[in-house]
């Protein structure tokens, strides 16, 4: 046997595998992937759906489920915290996505026109993207702090505020502060994508525009922006999906507080499931997020399909 | 002429503002990690430390809770990367090279599973891990991370394999290469760049993950992100040691990313632009 193993393709398991049809071989290659995904994604999703129709109690330390139909979903309609949470989820998502796209666009343009973006900056630029949300959270929490936070000092010197504020603890500023910290992290990725998109616009298009007498602003609106539309669309959908699943940063910065002012759906689902131990209600909330995300997934796949 | 200058000035001012916005927070974190409490808590805050100190870096590396968390992160991220790359590469090869019934449906299912919000999976996975005894183990966390990264690996790798001319593989088969040898000797070497990029993304995802790690680990398997988040939860926040922890904890990923910057930018933009 050992002699034959050195010449695969003649005997043993390998040769049988090589004589298989392509479909059968594909089956062999795909089996581990499919089994894992079925185990850790498809089955849990089904389980979560079941949980969202159930109530969980701990009877002498063991989980016990009672089927309660749509009660968890009905609870969402009656939950007085929900309207506020939904509104904040919307504000957070919209502000984060729009803010990221605008700032990223500005940065991509400055790099594209060579104002900055040497090798050093290109490297430094990847750092916010590669930092974990937790470290990002620690960093911003430190900068926002009300005793000697650097943001307070900078704004004092610029004359924007009269006294130090606890940006994350005040109900009027907390959400905005969280959004800014999140934008900081998501800008570099978006800027890189936009820059790559700008670099694919042919130079002839700009030259032609110049010959026709189009100024900088006209060229921006008639050449740059329309050419980047597909890239912007993909980015818009991706950023929205990410904003909907934001959790780490908010958890580290505020845990949804003060007074629910930074509570978004995702954090609320976590709080219900793992702080109040209401797994059923948590699952129902999580399913609601899933449905919102699926809508965006469909849009996303359609955009990708159109681009290809 | 003066209009042009004015325009240029505005452009430069905006770009400087953007630059400060991106760079300053990192600089502030880095400087804070070298400060003694005297400088850390000075009011008003000063940019530069009056006395540079490495004391807290040394103290950090002697702290068991930090080094063991770092080791846990290394184990979990390392195994996640190795396993999802090997399994995912095979799956990607099947999608790239073979024709089989319902191929598109399978591929879409794999892709769609990546888009499910993690919160929806956390609750059931937590319960399942608890029932199977995998809760609070490395294996449980690794299994979870693999399932998140697999769809991504399959998707990325498929495009790398498609880019390799099929004729090379056919020639190798004529020379007597078996199916596995084709993958090992032709496909893997030719897609090395892609393998590295995908591997770094997977490693980074696992290293930085917080949501599942915080719910599914305890004292023994606590990963770095969980340990670092605890700095804030503690009664008295140990700022002086928290900043060195943030820097040291980010270093493995940062070094990988900075070293392979060119591949990474290409890998990132390919997904978005194409």
TrEMBL record, chain A:
Domain ABC transmembrane type-1, residue spans: 86-300
Record protein name field: Sugar ABC transporter permease
Primary localization class, coarse: membrane
Annotated transmembrane regions: 26-50, 85-112, 124-144, 174-196, 231-253, 281-301
UniProt keyword terms in alphabetical order: Cell membrane, Membrane, Transmembrane, Transmembrane helix, Transport
Family of this protein: Belongs to the binding-protein-dependent transport system permease family.
Signal peptide residues on this chain, from the entry's feature table: none
GO terms for biological process, alphabetical: transmembrane transport
Membrane topology: Multi-pass membrane protein
GO CC term, one of those recorded: plasma membrane
Organism: Paenibacillus pinisoli
Pfam family, one: BPD_transp_1
SUPFAM superfamilies, per the entry: MetI-like
Alphabetical list of InterPro entries matching this protein: ABC_transporter_permease, MetI-like, MetI-like_sf
Cell compartments where the protein resides: Cell membrane
């Amino acid at each position: 046997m050992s002699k034959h193993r050195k010449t695969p393709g003649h005997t043993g398991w390998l040769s049988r595998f090589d004589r298989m049809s392509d479909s059968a071989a594909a089956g062999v290659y795909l089996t581990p992937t499919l089994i894992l995904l079925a185990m850790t994604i498809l089955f849990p999703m089904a389980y979560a759906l079941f949980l969202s129709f159930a109530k969980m109690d701990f009877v002498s330390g063991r989980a016990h489920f009672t089927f309660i139909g749509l009660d968890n979903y009905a609870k969402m309609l009656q939950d007085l915290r929900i309207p506020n949470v939904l509104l904040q989820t919307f504000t957070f998502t919209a502000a984060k996505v729009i803010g990221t796209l605008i700032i990223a666009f500005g940065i991509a343009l400055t790099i594209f026109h060579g104002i900055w973006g040497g090798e050093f900056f290109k490297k430094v630029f990847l750092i916010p993207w590669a930092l974990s949300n937790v470290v990002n959270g620690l960093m911003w929490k430190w900068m926002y702090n009300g005793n000697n936070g650097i943001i307070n000092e900078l704004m004092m010197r610029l004359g924007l505020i009269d006294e130090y504020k606890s940006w994350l603890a005040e109900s009027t500023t907390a959400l905005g502060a969280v959004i800014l910290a999140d934008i900081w992290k998501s800008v570099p990725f978006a800027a890189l994508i936009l820059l790559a998109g700008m670099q694919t616009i042919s130079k002839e298009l700009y030259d032609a525009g110049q010959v026709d007498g189009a100024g900088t602003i006209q060229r921006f609106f008639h050449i740059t922006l329309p050419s980047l539309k597909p890239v912007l669309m993909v980015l818009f959908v991706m950023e929205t999906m990410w904003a909907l699943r934001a959790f780490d940063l908010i958890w580290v910065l505020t845990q949804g507080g003060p007074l629910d002012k930074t509570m978004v759906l995702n954090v609320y689902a976590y709080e219900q499931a793992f702080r109040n131990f209401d797994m059923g209600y948590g699952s129902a909330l999580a399913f609601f997020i899933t449905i919102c995300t699926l809508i965006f997934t469909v849009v996303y796949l359609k955009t990708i399909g159109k681009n290809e | 002429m003066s209009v042009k200058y004015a325009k240029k000035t505005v452009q430069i001012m905006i770009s400087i503002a953007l630059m400060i916005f991106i760079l300053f927070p990192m600089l502030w974190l880095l400087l804070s990690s070298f400060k003694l409490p005297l400088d850390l808590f000075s009011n008003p805050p000063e940019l530069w430390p009056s006395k540079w100190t490495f004391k807290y870096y040394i103290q950090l590396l002697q702290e068991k809770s930090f080094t063991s968390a770092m080791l846990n992160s290394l184990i979990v991220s390392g195994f996640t990367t190795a396993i999802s790359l090997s399994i995912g590469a095979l799956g990607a090869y099947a999608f790239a090279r073979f024709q089989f019934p319902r191929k598109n449906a399978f591929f879409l299912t794999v892709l769609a599973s990546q888009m499910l919000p993690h919160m929806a999976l956390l609750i059931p996975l937590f319960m399942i891990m608890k029932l199977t005894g995998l809760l609070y183990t490395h294996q449980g966390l690794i299994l979870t991370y693999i399932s998140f990264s697999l769809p991504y690996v399959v998707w990325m790798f498929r495009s790398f394999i498609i880019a390799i001319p099929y004729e090379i593989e056919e020639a190798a088969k004529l020379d007597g290469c078996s199916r596995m040898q084709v993958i090992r000797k032709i496909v893997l070497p030719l897609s090395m760049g892609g393998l590295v990029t995908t591997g770094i993304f997977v490693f980074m995802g696992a290293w930085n993950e917080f949501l599942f790690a915080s719910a599914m680990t305890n004292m023994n398997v606590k990963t770095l992100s969980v340990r670092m988040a605890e700095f804030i939860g503690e009664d008295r926040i140990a700022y002086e040691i928290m900043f060195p922890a943030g820097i040291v904890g980010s270093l493995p990923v940062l070094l990988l990313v900075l070293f392979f910057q060119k591949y990474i930018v290409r890998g990132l933009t390919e997904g978005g632009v194409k």
